[in-house]
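Follow-up to my earlier ticket, as requested here are the two runs.
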Amino acid sequence: MRIGYACLTVGVRGTGMRTCTMKNATEEKLLEIIGHNLDSLENMIDYNAKNGILLFRISSDLIPFGSSPVNRLPWEMVFRERFQAIGEKIKRRGMRVSMHPGQYTVINSADEDVARRAFEDLRYHNLVLDSLGAGPESKIVIHVGGVYGEREESLKRFADRYRSLDDSIRDRLVIENDERSYNIGHVLEAALTLGIPAVFDNLHNAVNPSEAGGSDVMWIDECSKTWKPRDGSQKIHYSQQNHSKRRGSHSDSVRIGEFLEFYGSLGSRELDIMLEVKDKNLSAIKCINSVSEKKSMRALELEWSRYKYLVLEKSPAVYLQIRQLLKDKKSYPAVRFYRLIEEAAAAESTKGSSLNAMQHVWGYFKDVSTESEKKRYLRLTGDFGSGKASEKAVKAFLLRMAEKYGEKYLLDSYYFI
């Protein structure tokens, strides 16, 4: 079973994606941005492989205006060797990649022009995966689309347009239930009729359930019937409700207790679980470590090195609890560790706890910094303490110091997120 995340990597240097406006999309600018984005993608793949994340959704923003006439570059040829090199890394690690076009890629639209652009967008996504040398198990996930006042007619239009797609695109395409128009019952009906794999999304099902009812596990089992061996392992989407936002909004982080309850309900089923969550890779590593059979204390110590100053800033009490927890090198208290991380994340930092964390971070520079940098730090923290400067301003200064002096331990931490 693989657990992964979507599109962006949080808190990892060299993984940012760039784009540009249409008016600035010159050939020179596009070449520069695509080169940068491919570098970022390769860094993401390296990071994922190092951290045991073997399921990853590639951002649709990889190639700016990838499906638009604005971009006339034969980018798949210009960057062929770069794509091949990245694709080889993906294969070598046994990683599964996918893509998920945005909400405007609607092949069943009543507007022919919208449908035409959706076809172009699917060709673009397929070309990215082909350029990486990915097989048919690397899927393109879409929703059925709109209802347009007549569900049966709209489903028929989806089926007709699906059948007109190129074979190579149909081989990759999978359909997912959504939170408004097509629940899992509708999606399964279309999937079985057309021979398309169906992706079950638990949060969409909670918001827009089938009239037939049924548990998540029941629907997962029903969807499994649509996956053929050449499609690879059955894939599902998992997310949790953000309790402070509208129904259907993804949580900032996966709550480990809820995830373990869901994971336990799956039994021995072989699934790939794509997490849809704001903190991306952070939650993926949390979930992987919490269910891992390897039980590596080193993995938790590595996680602690990333979280420690963020936890210290939020809750000194939790900071001390985690330090004590990790002293027993023969144990593997992953779930307890992450519950404490969640407890700290939910806490409100105080001026005192923030200043304490700042002082710990400054300790990396106190013996190497210049006199002007020391004065700058003292002035900023003094102003923060008196309310004249923001925490953000102090952290920005400390980040610049970490970059200047190459403090990898700090740069790899989550303190600056």
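Run two:
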Amino acid sequence: MILSNISVPLLGMVDTGVVGHLDNSTYLGAVAIGSTIFTFIYIGMNFLRMGTTGIAAQSYGADDNDGLRVALGQALIVSLAIALALIVLQVPISKLALALLGGEAETREHAATYFFIRVWSAPGTLANYVLIGWFLGLQNARVPLLIFLTINITNIVLDLVFVLVLGMKVDGVALASVIAEYTGLAVGATFALAALRDRTGRWPVERFRKLAAYRAFFSVNANLFVRTMALMFALAFVTAQGARLGPAILAANAVLMNFQNLTALGLDGIAHAAEAMVGKAVGQKDDDALRRTVNLTLRWSAIFAAGFTLVYIVAGPLIVRTLTDLPDVRETAMLYLPWLIASPLISVWCFLYDGVYVGMTRAREMRNIMLVSTFLVFLPVWYVTQPFGNHGLWFAFMVFLAARGIGMHIGYRRTL
């Protein structure tokens, strides 16, 4: 799962690197804004993966093959409904998102081009979330890795072909993402059909047709949705405030956010393992296995966080230079790089506990801690530190990450 997750920000780095070497920084800013919109939307829908993992893992632990089919089928139906809604409402969504994120007129124009192409990836992207979550619940991390690698390798190759060979701009980057998502979906669906053939059971059709049958699904996922939207608000807020501080800050923060994404998704690899293992322990009602899993994954998370920090100390400047050759963007990014060097050690705890809480299906507590961290910690700290500009913005973001970890640690200790 670490390999799977690291491949995602590496893809983002390729997107950034491809447009970062074009002749105008507005392309980089446009991809940053466009990507932020879809990060907000798609990762905002990450409850489809998280909720599916927890529910499927508990069914797996209880040896309930019918329950595994219900977990997969209900999540796929909901994902398709959400994807169709995004496509139908794409015009008002794009207008609202671009108005909120701001930026210069030319940058917003290119970002709109990116949006109207990439929105057609919605059915594939959300179905992939469900399949990845379901396979994790089955303690199978190899298929998610294959899905991720298929998506990312396809996307990287098409990025290079569309932009560097065919001369496309942000439209090429967006189109590459659309094609890659459906390629990954084909791989995931093939393995899902094979897994179902190996697990005898029946499809309880009545649990797919009646809205009341989705109560358990929505009781977990509604809270996860609110929690994730609060998280994405914080991430989008960083981009929006960067846009208001000028094009150089916006572009530099886009480069630096690749570091944060690499940290988050890399450490989430251990958290995803915790989701599956904790969920299985809960399904088996094995409290000792639950405690062992949490202690083990906490130790390994700390080790990997220290490794990320060390890599950023040594290779951070090289990564910045690789991602963009625009002198003002490079200089600005280097000024704020120390915040991203410190981030792994600050944020590791919230990432790991996310996995623990998902496996325990304690979505309500996750929601409450995230809301407090976002609106009662992050925004007030940012408001107070505004005189410090972008340094104040990154400081507030680090405090936000720390607050999440502390809150979830206290909540977990209360359950022991």
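The only thing I checked on run two: Residues 336 and 385 are 15 Å apart (CA to CA). Let me know what else you need.
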